[in-house]
Amino acid sequence: MIVAHGIGGIRDLPVPTSYFVVGAGVVLVLSFAALAALWRRPLLERHAGGRPLPAALERVLLSRALRGTVGALSLALLLLVWLAAAIGERAGADNLAPTFVYVVFWLGLVPLSVLLGDVWRALNPWKAAADGAAWLWSRLGRDYEPPFRYPEEALGRLPAAVGLLAFAALELAYVEPSSPRALAVAIAVYSWATWLGMAAFGRRAWLENGEAFTSYFGLLASAAPLARRGERIVVRPPLTGLASSLDTPGTIPFLAVMLGSVAFDGFSRSSWWQDAYYEVQLSLLERPDLADLAGILMSVGVLVGFVAVAGAAYRLAVAGAEWIAQDGRRLAHAFVSSLIPIALVYAVAHYFSLLVLQGQVAVKLASDPFGWGWDLLSTAGFRPDFGILTPNTVWYVQVAALVAGHVAGLAVAHDRAVALFRPRLAAWTQLPLLALMILYTVGGLWLLSRS
Amino acid sequence: MASLAELIAHGSNLDEIGAAAFVVALIVVIGFLGWRGGRRERERERD
Predict the structure, then answer these.
(1) Which of A21, A32, A273, A327 to mutate to test the interface with B (most CBs of B within 10 A)?
(2) Of A451, A449, A395, A10, which Cα lies nearest the Cα of A274?
(3) The pTM is what?
């Protein structure tokens, strides 16, 4: 039921797609030259502090009442979606759960996080339930100490990276990703794993390191113009939040999963992959269970391969920068925040059409979440307009987003470099990062044009 | 998968081969510039 992530092919562009590839490379090289010539002092960090919102607005946004209400609504929504998945109509097209999980939640929260900051911190239903349980426990006069200390130095965000990879595998490798029953199992397993993680290691430790979506939306929100600073909410120029090093172990694998999974999604819709995939399926026509298993294993294997390539390419570029700098400093964590705008535009380029098109279906399904013929909100008769985007519009948005995001990535890395090195050396250290950005951009465009 | 000869014989793929060659050349030039620039910068620091 989930519509294809793109809408049709690119058929009537005025110039060949390869011109876009060359043009994107030229834009990146020119951007690099401009940054080297004009951006000679770190700017992002200086503006990262921002200005606080008006006190009255802050009081409302940070109030316990609002947090409790939002948390309760979010938990109720989780329960509704899980119930719809577990007992609602079996066809994904008639059930709210698949559209809600893959479109409203997974894609819809991306623009919200990038524009409004870390909204997931307030919306997270698993955190809301744990906060509620902790509040109740303390009202009963009981203390709770987590039995284990989370090994932050050793593992960091690795469990979150594994969680995100599992979600990507469910969406991209499982044979029936929009099966409501499969989603019900996945939601139940993830919910209990999250609650057990918080009970075992403490809420803060598990949310920051083990809960995949906290890391995902939190990293994207670090580029946002709104941010929490202690008990204040500040407004700042976009991207300035990326000025700091991300020292948490596991951040690079996590970002590699973000990049690699979207890249695999594009690849999995290319004719090369479809031919190879269905050749295997046809050869196992007599054994459908084995065919499903082979399909899942193939997809997971290539998905992991894409993640490994995305991470290895970054490591290689950083090794080049370290070789040029030759001062013994390890730079992997210093430049990793430059991958965040790239992960963002990969998501925008691949999924914005899905959000715009399938997001309309959510309006209809909201009235009948179980697919039982209800019309709770009088929107059951809503007819989505799938002609709202043309294939060429989608393509131009994809190209613009990819190029702009990689230029932003270059700027962030360059700002970090001039904070660490003298301007001339900083510019030289950025050449391997420029090569990386060109590879990511060209790879992204190629995958999108093949989809 | 198509052989190189088939790819070249197919007109529309010439575009892709050209774009790929451009990107590879660009990355080689960038790599060379980084290698030479870094070496010169360190020599300058030593002097």
Answers:
(1) A21
(2) A451
(3) 0.92
